[in-house]
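thought: user wants a sequence for this fold. calling inverse folding tool.
action: design(structure=
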């Protein structure tokens, strides 16, 4: 009986493995289609944002764009147009500003229509895949052809909508609506840089050993000597001075203790002198722990009496002893002051050495900041730092705005506008998904955050619940919190 059941179990395991493999292939195929559409939609939005930023600029900024940011040929055409209109009543700047406004508005209109078409197509594809979601996993061979046929029909509708939506959307004009390449935008900077580099190369060649000149070798030696001198004066010598001073302090610790003992010996001697003088003048035994200040008051009182007859008391009185006690007190005060002064000088020696090393420290700190900024470059919302964190929070705000816009269209009965609005919601969620994935995995929040993003994309959930989810995302997840609220 057991032997009969084993082949059945093996066949069931093989069948389940085949079903899983087919479902995986179907999922990969559909993900590629969605990724292709999202990539094109992101590119359209990027170009649209570029032209919108140019449209919001001043007239001078638009004229600068028309002349200097469209390539060398546009620069020649713009310069020729300005020169040809320099006559009376020509108004070259006004003409260029008007032409720039027309060009930018034309591109914005074309890209807006194209974005609506792609967003509506994305929403329909997502709804179609979502409708067959369960059957795609259970029976991919049966349901996948229907999904692909539906997507193919949606592609045909997309082509028709792009070609018939507006006369601006002609295929050969779409390439002109893209955001210009970096080389086109900054061609003047690159040209000036190339010319400057060429002149610098010629100048270096004239002073190099290739033409028999030793100027560059001399400059290199001077720069090397200057760098070596800077490192020696502001790095090596201050550090050695600090090290030697610290070690010398430890080595002279025993000597310092002896200096303190010498001061203590002077203080003890003064105490004994005061005690003996006071006991003799008072004629009674005084306690050993009597304060020196109290005994000094007795000495000074006796001194004032003795000094009234100085010659007599100097020979037969206590005036000489009182003066010696005062000399001993001055000696103690002087030694105490010298000890404190010695400590101050030692501390200042270390301070001066540290001040000498400060230029090198600040230079090293500046280099460290520059290297850190170069290593941690701005990667948009996917990067690190406050700027990237702010961009991720703005993506959440963008999702909220798209959801409100979608719900507004639905409430007003605008089904067509609601379609492309839902597609823009999916596009914003895709950007948010890619921006937070790596950071959420590092903090262990990815499973919960991914489920929230998936919930926001579900078409059957109410908008009020989705807005609650976005509000919770901005408060709870570490990768979306403001920098000031992180602990």
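)
observation: tool returned 487 residues.
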């Amino acid at each position: 009986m057991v032997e009969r059941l084993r082949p059945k179990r093996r066949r069931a395991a093989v069948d389940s493995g085949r079903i899983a493999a087919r479902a995986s292939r179907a999922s990969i195929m559909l993900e590629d289609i969605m990724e292709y559409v999202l990539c094109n939609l992101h590119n359209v939005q990027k170009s649209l944002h570029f032209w919108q930023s140019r449209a919001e600029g001043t007239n001078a900024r638009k004229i600068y764009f028309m002349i200097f940011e469209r390539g060398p040929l546009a620069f020649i055409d713009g310069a020729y147009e300005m020169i040809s209109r320099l006559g009376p009543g020509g108004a070259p700047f006004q003409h260029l500003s008007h032409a720039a406004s027309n060009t930018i508005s034309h591109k914005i209109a074309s890209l807006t229509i194209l974005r609506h078409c792609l967003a509506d197509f994305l929403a329909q594809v997502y709804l179609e895949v979502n409708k067959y979601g369960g059957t795609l996993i259970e029976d991919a061979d049966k349901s996948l052809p229907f999904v692909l046929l539906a997507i193919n029909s949606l592609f045909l509708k997309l082509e028709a909508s792009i070609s018939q939506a507006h006369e601006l959307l002609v295929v050969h004009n779409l390439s002109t609506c893209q955001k210009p390449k970096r080389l086109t935008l900054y061609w003047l900077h690159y040209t000036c840089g190339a010319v400057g580099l060429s002149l610098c190369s010629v100048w270096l060649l004239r002073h190099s050993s290739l033409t028999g000149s030793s100027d560059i070798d001399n400059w290199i030696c001077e720069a090397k000597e200057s760098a070596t001198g800077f490192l020696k004066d502001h790095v090596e010598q201050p550090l050695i001075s600090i090290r030697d001073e610290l070690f010398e302090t430890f080595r002279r610790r025993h000597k310092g203790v002896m200096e303190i003992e010498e001061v203590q010996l002077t203080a003890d001697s003064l105490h004994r002198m005061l005690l003996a003088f006071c006991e003799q003048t008072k004629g009674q035994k005084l306690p050993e722990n009597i304060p020196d200040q109290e005994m000094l008051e007795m000495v000074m009182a006796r001194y004032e009496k003795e000094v009234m007859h100085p010659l007599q008391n100097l020979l037969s009185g206590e005036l000489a002893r009182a003066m010696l006690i005062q000399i001993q007190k001055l000696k103690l005060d002087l030694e105490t002051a010298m000890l404190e002064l010695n400590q101050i000088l030692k501390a200042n020696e270390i301070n001066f050495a540290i001040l000498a090393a400060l230029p090198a420290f600040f230079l090293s700190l500046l280099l460290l900041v520059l290297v850190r900024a170069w290593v941690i470059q701005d990667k948009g919302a996917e990067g690190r730092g406050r700027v990237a964190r702010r961009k991720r929070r703005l993506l959440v705000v963008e999702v909220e705005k798209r959801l409100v816009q979608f719900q507004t269209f639905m409430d007003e009965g605008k089904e067509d506008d609601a379609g492309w609005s839902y597609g823009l919601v999916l596009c914003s969620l895709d950007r948010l998904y890619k921006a937070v994935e790596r950071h959420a995995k590092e903090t262990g929040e990815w499973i919960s955050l991914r489920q929230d993003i998936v919930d926001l994309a579900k078409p059957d959930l109410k908008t009020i619940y989705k807005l609650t989810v976005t509000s919770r995302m901005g408060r709870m997840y570490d990768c979306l919190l403001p920098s000031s609220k992180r602990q």
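thought: summarizing for user.
answer: Here is the designed sequence. Residues 251-374 form one domain.
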